[in-house]
Specification:
This protein is of the alpha/beta class. It is 31% helix and 25% strand. The chain contains 14 helices and 26 strands. The structure holds uridine-diphosphate-N-acetylglucosamine.
Length: 426
């Protein structure tokens, strides 16, 4: 197992560029299956989840090629297998995204039912119900979801809960359904809009992009398209918090500031001086200790649950007490137990964490439990006195491209080492 070693204390300073968004590139890669020719996707981040998606599509018979600029060409013309096996689904829940496109395009899909995960139960009932509304016959047998439909028929779908991949799955399926579908209470995340824009380039007819009502007029077929993925707002936010927690000054480039309104507002509340350009954000703490900020997670445009662990880490060293309330996933405070090992003062009550800011943290061996929790722990390590060893960091590679190189370039004392087996929690 890999481990990240951080020696805390250095204020981060300098410039860092942002990679393409994980949560946009995965559905876009999957959507390329809907085309009758190859698609070329650029600004693809070098991430484990991208590799897993390539493996998934490759096993189904799609032809994939990656060039030197990390552009991926996906040609679905050789597709013969319409199955996402458990061994891949269990490493990446986003595999569920193949369900809608496979049924819509090939009339048949078998996708292993994702089990629980570190941050909660994460059911997919809303995906399945909406697919049934589009006329698919859906059964769950032997741990697999099996869906069939000769042709999908348009429907009016109202999601009970805002679901990002649920909206994406059904939007993709509806592009090839007969008639005009409406998705109400749709997720408004920028990654959903990016997927919609890619589908439109493929010939789909979608309106209401970026709103909570999507109207999708089904078409007979879609073509391959070229598309550049939007910048990752969660990676952007993570680097901004890295600057704030270390009282540093970081200039983030190749990003999309308007997707980070709620994060920027909260960072300003900590006392950060933030300037914004078309595609950059500059955060300067002027050496000041950040102030505590309360956070409540919510669907976009609210505060992203994927930024919660990073703000929990930030609040461990702020002036004052903060309350963090997690409303999206029921078990997303796994990082708290690890932060306590660094000397943080946190009490979890139900879905809230009360964090009393300390003047400092002390380094210790800790364990990453999921993707965003890992990021929060690395951020805490940047400010903890002495050495922090974050074990099990394979989670971080699912969603952050070259995290240690990028943080190192900003002056962090960080390196990847083989796990010394320092942490054992059997
Ligand atoms: C996506 C993101 C993930 C992010 C999350 C919330 C991707 C690949 N992943 O995950 O990074 O943390 O959105 O912003 O884009 N729910 C149900 N039934 C369903 C579907 C969802 O009850 O059928 C519930 C979930 O348990 C959760 C809430 O709805 O409580 C939101 O989940 P959802 O938006 O679906 O998350 P994902 O799409 O899995």
């Amino acid at each position: 197992m890999a481990c990240i070693q951080v020696i805390g204390g250095a204020p981060l300073k300098g410039e860092v560029w942002i990679s393409g968004a994980k949560n946009a590139v995965l559905p876009i890669m999957v959507a390329s299956l809907l085309g009758d020719g190859p698609s070329v996707i650029s600004n693809v981040p070098h991430l484990q989840d991208v590799t897993t998606t390539m493996e998934l599509l490759g096993r189904m018979g799609a032809t994939l090629a990656v060039d030197d600029h990390l552009r991926i060409e996906i040609d679905p013309r050789g597709m013969q297998q319409f199955e996402a096996p458990y061994e891949l689904v269990k490493t990446m829940r986003a595999s569920i995204l193949v369900l809608g496109p496979l049924v819509a395009r090939f009339g048949h899909a078998v996708v292993s039912l994702p089990g629980g995960c570190a941050i909660g139960s994460r059911p997919v009932d809303l995906h399945l119900r909406a697919l049934q509304q589009l006329g698919a016959e859906v059964t769950v047998v032997n741990g697999n979801i099996e869906a069939r439909a000769e042709t999908l028929k348009a429907a009016n779908i109202i999601f009970d809960t805002v679901t990002v991949t649920g909206t994406e799955n059904i939007m993709m399926a509806a592009t090839l359904a007969e008639g005009t579908s409406v998705i109400e209470n749709a997720a408004q995340e920028p990654e959903v809009a990016d997927l919609a824009n890619f589908l439109i380039k493929m010939g789909a007819k979608i309106s209401g992009v970026g709103t909570n009502t999507l109207i999708i007029e089904g078409v007979k077929k879609l073509r391959g398209a070229e598309y550049s993925v939007l910048p990752d707002r969660i990676e952007t936010g993570t680097f901004l918090v890295a600057a704030a927690i270390t009282r540093g000054h970081v200039h983030v480039t190749r990003t999309q500031p308007r997707h980070l309104d709620s994060v920027i507002e909260k960072l300003r509340e900590t006392g950060a001086d933030i300037e914004i350009g078309d595609d950059w954000i500059d955060l300067d703490m002027h050496g000041r200790r950040p102030k505590a900020v309360n956070i409540t997670t919510a669907p976009y445009p609210g505060f992203a649950t994927d930024m919660q662990a990073q703000f929990t880490a930030l609040n461990t060293i702020t002036e004052g007490t903060a309350i963090i309330t997690e409303t999206i996933f029921e078990n997303r405070f796994m990082h708290v137990q690890e932060l306590l090992r660094l000397g943080a003062d946190i009490t979890v009550k139900g879905n809230s964490a009360i964090i009393r800011g300390r003047s400092g943290l002390t380094g210790a061996p800790i364990m990453a439990t999921d993707l965003r929790a890992s990021a929060g722990l690395v951020l805490a390590g940047l400010v903890a006195n002495g050495t922090t060893l974050v074990d099990d960091v394979h989670h971080i590679d699912r969603g952050y491209e070259n995290i240690e190189e990028k943080l190192g370039q900003l002056g962090a004392k960080i390196k990847r080492t083989a796990s010394a087996g320092v942490v054992s929690r059997d």
